[in-house]
Amino acid sequence: MHCTSLLVNCMDSRLQGDNQTKIAGALGLEPGDFDVLNYAGPSLWMADPHEPSHEAAFRWQFENVCLNAHSVKRVGLVGHANCGGFALKGAPQTVPEEKAVIVASLQNAKAKLAKDYPQIEFIPAFVTIGSQPSKGLPEISVEVL
Length: 145
Ligand SMILES: [Zn+2]
Known about the structure:
Helix content: 40-55%
Number of helices: 5
Shape: globular
Structural class: alpha/beta
Strand order of the largest sheet: 2-1-3-4-5
Strand content: 15-25%
Order of helices and strands: EHEHHEHHEE
Bound molecules: zinc ion
């Protein structure tokens, strides 16, 4: 098994399925060519995890599976509006303030990862979510940072 990329996505149901494919596409990741790891507030995983042991769990999967087994070269790092993972951390629940906190976290995570894995390209993105339809996935828009 070999693939070039990893998408670190939120576990949020609104960002799965076709929306995950759309996010990956905006980041230049091809279907069938990226691994996926999910966490509640993805950038918190390596920058401010919900439990201290979580960062080691991320790094074990990233190093042993994504880098060593699959030869990943590029990582998309997702943040999104109305994120429960950030709500658990006490992030503001108003639109511009929440986004500022999440974008800062994405940049912090990118800087930390780029220092530890200088050979890997890290691409953060912020996803805005439209209103929830009665069935199926909401519309999203992806801003590559
Ligand atoms: Zn989330």
